[in-house]
Amino acid sequence: MSSFSIIMIVLGLGGLGFFLGRSRALSMSDTNHQKLHSLPGYYGQIVALYTIVPALLILMTWLFVQPILIETRVSGMIPDSVIPEGGAKSLVLADVRRISGGLDALMAASGLSEDELAQMNADQTDIRKQLAEVGVAIGTDVQGPVFEAAKTFRATENVGRFWMSGVTLAMAALLFVVTLLRITPDLRARNTSETFVLSLLIGASLVAILTTVGIVGSLLFETLNFFKMYPAKDFFFSTVWNPQFRGGSDLGILPLLWGTLYVSLLALLVAVPTGLMIAIYLAEYAGKGLRSFAKPAIEVLAGIPTIVYGLFALITVGPFLRDYIASPLGLGSSSSSVLTAGLVMGIMLIPFVSSLSDDIINAVPQAMRDGSYGLGATKSETIKQVILPAALPGVVGAVLLAASRAIGETMIVVMGAGAAAKLGLNPFEAMTTVTVKIVSQLTGDTEFASPETLVAFALGLTLFVITLGLNVIALHVVRKYREQYE
After folding, report:
1. pLDDT of residue 446
2. Is residue 229 within 8 Å of residue 470, measured between CB atoms?
3. Which of 112, 125, 234, 452 is the most buried (most CB within 10 A)?
4. What pLDDT was estimated at residue 483?
5. What is the pLDDT of residue 36?
6. Whole-angstrom Cα distance, residue 11 to residue 53?
7. For residues 467 and 407, what is the distance between their CA atoms, to the nearest angstrom?
């Protein structure tokens, strides 16, 4: 039974529990001529909550733990002899998972039975060809141990799925019956329901916190493994980025940091002034009709996929800058450049700055405007000396959001700025950023335990620290300004 089917059954049982719990409370109240402690709906809520929540928690835990246990078991079946030279067992396990997933499709297409599948031998059958016919592509020939591991993977997964369905549905049914039988007019259903919901809210809050801790922990753990293989001094202070994947790599982060900051700075130089002026005009000068049309039209830019911006940079902006500015001035001959990515990214960031700044400016009390006008100030003087200072903390937050978005952007940089890691001041030269290299280092068939792959985690942790530092600085500036203003 699929996970979706289990969830639907549990939700349906919970819905049934709500109506039965409510009806049982009302029936017992009428029979015993006893007043209910809580509203009837609360009795239904506790049956639904106790039926749904524990069962779904078991299901999610099972779905998380089961793949780990299966891979641990199957990993021991893969001998070192089937691991390609320069490869890793994790890559072989990926093939095992793909083969396992394709066996069901193969059985459905060819009519194989479970016994016939168990007797199949990779040495006697071209498994790779048969899997390709049902849409499962395997890069290398399927060797005997790999195929046997895939069959074990599939069988264990099926057994696990069976027990998962049984345990989850049994838990839901058991709690459904027990909670329903506990319902009496004296039951403090409202208190029980509210306590349960409060626990869910606390759990949801912990999920966000634990997710952050998990992200930082995984980055830190793999980064420490990287620094055991590659000197931290060379990583942070080397000006050369040259991963060879065969030894002798030079993995200096400085060119990537420079490219990231350069592109982000150009993007902010485009987005912040433009977005702020748009916000001031819409909030203070534009009429209601124009505002109702212009603001949604500007916010449409935020909904355009970044790949579309990347194509715009590659096809339109890059060739224009190359043909009409860079080439005539002798500054460059490539359509991929820092300026191309910065301009297009700046256009993408305009809605982030303008929309947030507009809302913040509109939140400034009208009394402050009236007081300024009463003292004889003009509209422009009021904007410069009253409204913008009052809205500055929010505007700083909008700029910070735009900066974080710029630092984390990938597709526009790939298609607009190129992939060259180097230091330079010429905005018409191709450069790259940290995020682009994180993607490139984690793609391909490189062994995961190699420095060229683990460096992606060091890059990610460095980028996280930089972004966190920007947040701390912005928070300090805002608090300091508020103290002076108040």
Report:
1. 60
2. no
3. 452
4. 45
5. 82
6. 9
7. 8
Residue type at 48 in one-letter notation: A
Distance CA 233, CA 355 (A): 43
Pull the structure tokens for residue 220. Answer: 């830190």
The residues with which 250 forms a beta bridge, in sequence order, are: 242
Tell me the Ramachandran region of residue 135: left when phi exceeds 0, alpha when psi lies from -120 to 50, beta otherwise: left
Position 90: which residue type? Answer: S
CA–CA distance, 397 with 98 (Å, rounded to integer) = 45
Burial class, 357, CB count within 10 angstroms (exposed 0-12 / middle 13-18 / buried 19+): buried
Within 8 A by CB and 6+ apart from 10, the residues are: 51, 52, 55, 56, 59, 168, 169, 172
Which residues, given as ranges, of the chain have pLDDT below 50? 483-486
**CA-wise closest residue to 187 among 43, 27, 45, 28:** 43
Which phi-psi region, left, alpha or beta, contains residue 330 (left: φ > 0; alpha: ψ -120 to 50)?
left
Tell me which residue has tokens 């985690």: 457
Rounded CA gap, 437 and 420, in Å? 10
pTM of the model: 0.69
Chain mean pLDDT for the chain: 82
Distance, CA of 437 to CA of 241 (rounded, Å)? 10
Is the C-alpha dihedral spanning 470, 472, 473, 475 positive or negative? positive
Q: What is the pLDDT of residue 271?
A: 92
The token duo for 204 is 């949801």
The per-residue pLDDT for range 99-120, each reduced to its tens digit, is 776 676 666 666 666 666 666 6
**DSSP3 helix / strand / coil % (the chain, rounded to 5):** 75, 0, 20
Q: What is the DSSP string of 8-32?
A: HHHHHHHHHHHHHHHHHHHHHHHHH
- Cβ partners under 8 Å of residue 268, min gap 6: 346, 349, 399, 402, 403, 406
